[in-house]
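Quick one, T. Sequence first:
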Amino acid sequence: MNRNMYFKEKRVFVVFRRWENLLNKSADTITFDGLLIIWIPLIFMLIIGCFFLLEDFYNPVKDTTNVTNIGFAVLAGISSLSFSWAGRLDRQTESQLHDDIVRFGALAFHAALIFITASGLKYIHIHIDNSKPFQRWLGEYVIRYVYMFSFFFAFEKTIFSVTGLNKLLYRKLKIKKK
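Structure tokens:
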């Protein structure tokens, strides 16, 4: 296989592979408590998150700056807790757990940065001067779709990082129960 084709295919399907890996590694969570701790919150976050994406964040006239500031703080807090947790682990005995926690914490922090960037773009879109044709075109066709895509991308990363951290906590609690 051509090396360039491999990398192109890898970039296109990276989101689907991420979700596939998350679901494939979940075979040990198909128990009653795993259902309550991992899957029901995931479904709840997906439903509520999609509602807010469609109702609030994609609404081009609704100013959601306050909500996005809170979301940024929550995601930054989750990433900070993840990095603190990873820092307390012994890297020689729990290296895989350490790497997973750091990866999900980095995803949460990246989601926070994308979220606050999308909020800034939406703020610009709301307050742009529409009297000039170029600014109207820039606001309606470029900034609007970029902030919509950014909100979706941040949402996907948030769901993935929170679900991954939740699974790690579940495994850690399950090991301590035994």
